[in-house]
Specification:
By secondary structure, the chain is an all-alpha fold. The termini are far apart. The chain has six helices and no strands. The chain binds ascorbic acid. It holds the Pfam family Cytochrom_C_2.
Length: 144
């Protein structure tokens, strides 16, 4: 009996650590990407001077982090913070295709950044932004 109670206590204590990531964790992770994406956006929109090395740094950082948010869509993890539509889980192949398009566009931006060809970089940046939008249109709901 004592052993059972101890096991129960340990299980309860471990619960928060085991809780699946939800909307807040996903939003933080996507916002981390914006800390690289936005400075590049300022340069391609000519709001800030284009600096090749700085741009490459941001493109590299984005590439390193880009897959992370997609590891946080645990099944049934729509909560009060989440803007995820249920279609993420009912149309997993379509969601995966959106993710793959995004990751491919991010790779392409990283490669283009290294050429220093600003006209091409603008196109590649636009390609990434387009994949953000198409996924949001299909799979992101309104703020709650
Ligand atoms: C951003 C941002 C998005 C995308 C999208 C592009 O900077 O936060 O969700 O670009 O607006 O259309």
């Amino acid at each position: 009996m004592k052993k059972v109670m101890l096991a129960g206590l340990i299980a309860l204590t471990a619960l928060p650590a085991l809780a699946a990531p939800g909307g807040a964790e996903r939003q933080q992770s996507f916002k981390k990407l914006l800390r690289s994406f936005e400075p590049m956006g300022l340069m391609v929109r000519e709001r800030e001077p284009y600096k090749k090395d700085e741009f490459i740094k941001h493109a590299d950082a984005l590439k390193k982090m880009a897959a992370e948010p997609f590891t946080l869509f645990a099944p049934n993890s729509i909560d009060a913070k989440s803007r995820s539509k249920p279609e993420i889980w009912t149309q997993p192949a379509k969601f995966a295709a959106e993710k793959d398009k995004f990751l491919k566009a991010v790779d392409e931006l990283d490669a283009t950044a290294k050429t220093g060809d600003l006209a091409q970089i603008k196109k590649s940046f636009g390609g990434v932004a387009q994949t953000c939008k198409s996924c949001h249109d299909a799979f992101r709901g309104p703020e709650r």
